[in-house]
Inverse folding.
């Protein structure tokens, strides 16, 4: 069994979340640099979480996904700290080396479900 890659886990989570958490909408966030008409264009803010979502009623959540060997960058730690300071829930969901992709996503769905607002 190979350790699932982060992009594989992200795709599975985005596919499964609506089935298991119908009151949560998740969106993929794009952060990086591109070239438009020969000009460098930056989009997003360095360190922003991989996903963001809203619980029905408008409560937001930021979600950083990590493979079993992944670690937060300094920029990601700063973003999580900013979220905390503003009262925005920010989760780091980390895969485990001994889990299949399905097991990881199932555990992540349970962790996300525990953030459901009252």
């Amino acid at each position: 069994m190979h350790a699932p890659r982060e992009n594989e886990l992200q795709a599975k989570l985005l596919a499964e979340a609506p089935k298991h958490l119908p009151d949560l909408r998740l969106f993929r966030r794009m952060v990086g640099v591109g070239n438009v008409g020969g000009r460098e264009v930056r989009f997003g803010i360095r360190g922003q979480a991989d996903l963001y979502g809203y619980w029905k009623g408008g409560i937001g959540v930021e979600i950083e996904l990590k493979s079993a060997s992944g670690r937060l960058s300094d920029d990601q730690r700063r973003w999580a700290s900013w979220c905390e300071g503003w009262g925005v829930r920010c989760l780091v969901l980390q895969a485990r080396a001994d889990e299949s992709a399905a097991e990881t996503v199932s555990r992540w769905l349970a962790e996300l479900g525990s953030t459901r607002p009252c």
Summary: The beta strands are 24-28, 32-36, 39-43, 51-55, 59-66, 89-94.
